[in-house]
Amino acid sequence: MATVSNSSNSSRPSTAELEQRRAVTELDLEQEPSAEWGWHGTFPRATQIAGWFTAAVMLLMLIGNHRGRVEDVFLVLIAVTMAFMLVRDIVKRRTHWRR
């Protein structure tokens, strides 16, 4: 059975350990230029493909054996909203340099 120490000194990192942590987290901005502004990659082409695929599937769900039309209204509204957002994304990507 493991014992747990209640000593407050054992839970705090030492000064040498803190200095070592700082040394590891500091980056050379000439070696890693994207680290300065926090680069996070995106996948715009895959996002577009997935978005259009999902909008098409939403419209394909209209084919079914349901009797009510409330589902149809929601499916069409969601698909149209997704299509609008995808087209807006395409336009924004093409014209972002014009600011």
Automatic annotation (TrEMBL):
List the transmembrane segments.
49-67, 73-91
Keyword terms of this UniProt record: Membrane, Transmembrane, Transmembrane helix
Q: Does the keyword Membrane apply?
A: yes
Superkingdom of the source species: Bacteria
How is this protein named in the record? DUF2631 domain-containing protein
Q: Tell me the organism.
A: Streptoalloteichus tenebrarius (strain ATCC 17920 / DSM 40477 / JCM 4838 / CBS 697.72 / NBRC 16177 / NCIMB 11028 / NRRL B-12390 / A12253. 1 / ISP 5477)
